[in-house]
Amino acid sequence: MNTQTCSPARCASCHYYEIEGRRGGSCHLLGVPVRGSWNACSMSYRTFTQPPEPPHYQPTLSPVGAGV
Prior knowledge:
mainly beta, Ubiquitin Ligase Nedd4, Chain: W, three-stranded antiparallel β-sheet, elongated
């Protein structure tokens, strides 16, 4: 089993989950309250691994007047 593609089964096992109280918590990725017992969403990521970084925008520059 590849740990890179294996997602957690519950919100409580997700990297973005933060417990708040006895039964609930919050998802930092979505910014919403969730329960730890809920099934994890498709964007979940394991707790002890680093989530993938979003791609950085790198504009392509061309010299001024190059096409003239």
